[in-house]
From TrEMBL:
InterPro entries: Cyt_c-like_dom, Cyt_c-like_dom_sf, Cyt_c_ID. Heme c binds at C30, H34, M78. This is C-type cytochrome. Residues 16-101 form the Cytochrome c domain. PROSITE patterns: CYTC. One of its GO terms (molecular function) is iron ion binding. Keywords: Electron transport, Heme, Iron, Metal-binding, Signal, Transport. It comes from Ideonella aquatica. Residues 1-19 form the signal peptide. The keyword DNA-binding does not apply. Transmembrane segments: none annotated. SUPFAM superfamilies: Cytochrome c. Binds 1 heme c group covalently per subunit.
Length: 101
């Protein structure tokens, strides 16, 4: 019984973390250029997850979001996104969620 309660609490916590990451992505304006499963201006989150599958790239992708850039998924540049748009904790949660696919 105790194991079941712990598992349920972890599932609820994970759902809350995903909702927070989704909220952060919306608030920061990421969804203006990205979608979960189709290319818009930038690549889909599904394509990002596939490209980096099995790699430890959270810090690298956080840096890329902060600095912006182009070339990884085509010629259209991504503008920099500073901590005023998305704080480090929310950015980390969002990148981790994206990489989980």
């Amino acid at each position: 019984m105790r194991t079941l309660l712990i598992a349920a609490a972890l599932a609820v916590g994970a759902t809350g973390a995903m909702a927070n990451a989704d909220e952060a992505l919306n608030k920061a304006g990421c969804m203006a250029c990205h979608a979960k499963d189709k290319k818009l201006v930038g690549p889909s989150f599904k394509d990002i997850a596939a490209k980096y599958k099995g790699q430890d790239v959270v810090a690298r992708l956080m840096d890329k979001v902060r600095k912006g850039g182009a070339g990884s998924f085509g010629p259209i540049p991504m503008s920099p996104n500073g901590p005023d748009k998305i704080n480090d904790a929310d950015l980390r949660a969002a990148v981790e969620q994206i990489l989980k696919g």
